[in-house]
Design a protein that fits this description.
Length: about 500
């Protein structure tokens, strides 16, 4: 049995397909590059046949990353499999991932296929996939509610027809750790050829057991686990990558397994994803929640000061959460700024560093000290993932208990200055209405949040909006020490992303 567990990241497929988590092409590429830095073994880049946009993002990711294997999901039809192959074939290490349901419930009601027909479909389509690609993964959807002897037969047929990985998903998050362990042992004992392929698991979190089930499966013999950053995914999500990796790392004395993950990239990967999709982990979320390394009670603080081990089983630094107390200020130069970016694991092109440094100087003029969290927020929002159609020039807002909100917004588009004034119930409504008037669009505001990036009265606010327009969705973000400005920037960023998405599909 291998000591190294392969990490199959499905943030860009199972994660991205869940409500509120969609990303545009440039965000997916940005995330894929970060997953490569995190050193995941396999990136599931999408479901190529789902739409032309999905196809393009799988293909572009396949062309962009070098080290990880790039997989595309496909149902067991020739058209799906061919499309998956057409999208991943440019990858250095391509993989076709094909699946069909094997539980009685799914076979009867969803597929309306007999078990024999499912077995034949597996044989025919895995064979077809392996005629195209050397690396073929087969998944038995709803495996944990399937009859074990039938699941064993399906697995054997998949292996006999060329599957190099067989994945056993707990699609609806129904199983328990003991059951999962026993199922893996059962398959290991009853399936011919199982030791020659990679056995995998994929767990959903409907009962909050996804990570526990994943670890039980590892103990039962799997050597690949499928997971997502921050545990995003269908319904209650997938097993969280950072929890699996840090559980194996922290308790390697007990489990005896490791991964290839560069753990120092965990915090950064989590942050990048949250900012992109505007979905932030709960403060008490293990590993990456805001409070995961915070010690509030006096007794705990006292203990940690005497010896961190009293209340910390892993260090924040181990996941790349820098506890640097050296703050930057307005006298800090580009060199110190670039060094700090590097120590935070933020990789930028030289011109992106210049743009971020210019923003840093503006911020340092408004704020006495600039913390690492400020820098992360600033870089996260400044990172030019798309060409912005509208750029904020200036704004004035007004409101009070006895007057309606009014806002005047000035933006630049192709060098031309555009200005509009609008009214609303408050400043934000007025500002968003003025932007709508400028852009000639009225997107639905599905969600709007403003968070404080760090502590203190001069902390930066980070605004997030989720917009929907003509069937397109976008998440916009913006940061500023002024929360109205952060909101305006977030809204404008959302509009720019909608325009980007619409232009791509022209
Ligand atoms: O949850 C599931 O069963 C899946 C498969 C397609 C792997 O996502
Ligand atoms: Zn899934």
């Amino acid at each position: 049995m291998s000591d190294v567990i392969k990490i199959f990241d499905t943030t860009l497929r199972d994660g991205e397909q869940s409500p509120g988590c969609s990303m545009n092409l440039s965000e997916k590429i940005e995330m894929a590059k970060q997953l490569e830095r995190l050193n995941v073994d396999i990136i599931e880049a999408g479901f190529a046949i789902a739409s032309p946009g999905d196809f393009e993002s799988v293909r572009t990711i396949a062309e962009t990353v070098t080290n990880p294997t790039v997989a595309s999901l496909s149902r067991t039809t020739k058209k799906d499999i061919q499309t998956a192959w057409d999208a991943v074939k440019y990858a250095k290490h391509p993989r076709i991932h094909t699946f069909i349901a094997t539980s009685p419930l799914h076979m009867e009601y969803k597929l309306q296929m007999s078990p024999e027909a499912v077995l034949n479909a597996v044989a025919e389509h895995v064979r077809f996939a392996s005629s195209l690609c050397d690396d073929v993964e087969f998944s038995a959807e709803d495996a944990t509610r399937s009859e074990w002897d039938f699941l064993a037969k399906v697995t054997e047929v998949a292996i006999a027809n060329g599957a190099t990985t067989v994945n056993i998903p707990d699609t609806v998050g129904y199983t328990t750790p003991d059951e999962m362990y026993n199922l893996m042992r059962y398959l290991k004992e009853h399936v011919k050829g199982i030791d020659d392929i990679t056995l995998s698991t994929h767990n959903h979190n409907d009962l909050g057991l996804a990570v526990a089930n994943t670890i039980a499966a590892i103990r039962g013999g799997v050597t690949q686990v499928e997971c997502t950053i921050n545990g995003i995914g269908e319904r209650a999500g997938n097993a969280a990558l950072e929890e699996i990796v840090m559980a194996l790392e922290t308790r390697k004395d007990y489990f005896g397994f490791t991964t290839n993950i560069d753990k120092k990239q965990i915090y950064r990967s989590s942050k990048l994803l949250s900012r992109m999709i505007g979905v932030f982990p709960a403060p008490n979320k293990a590993i990456v929640g805001k409070n995961a390394f915070a010690h509030e009670s006096g007794v705990h603080q006292h203990g940690v000061m005497a010896n961190r081990g009293t209340y910390e089983i892993m260090t924040p630094e181990s996941i790349g959460l820098n506890q640097n107390t050296m703050v930057l200020g307005k006298h800090s130069g580009r060199h110190a700024f670039a060094e700090r970016l590097e120590s935070l694991g933020i990789v930028l092109e030289p011109e992106q560093i210049d743009a971020a440094f210019a923003q840093f100087k503006i911020l340092a003029d408004k704020k006495k000290t600039v913390s690492d969290r400020d820098i992360e927020a600033l870089v996260g929002s400044e990172r030019g993932t798309i060409d912005e159609t509208y750029e904020l020039e200036s704004f004035v807002v007004n409101s009070g208990t006895v007057i309606d909100g009014t806002a005047t917004i000035v933006v630049k588009k192709d060098g031309e200055i555009l200005k509009q004034t609008a009214m609303g119930e408050g400043q934000i409504e007025a500002a968003f209405a003025a932007i709508n008037a400028i852009c000639g669009m009225e997107p639905e505001l599905m969600d709007y949040n403003i968070f404080s990036v760090s502590e203190g009265g001069d902390a930066q606010g980070e605004g997030t909006v989720k917009l929907k327009y003509n069937g397109y969705k976008a998440t916009g973000t913006g940061v500023s020490v002024d929360i109205i400005e952060a909101s305006i920037r977030a809204y404008l960023n959302g509009i720019n992303k909608l325009i980007y998405a619409m232009n791509r599909n022209k």
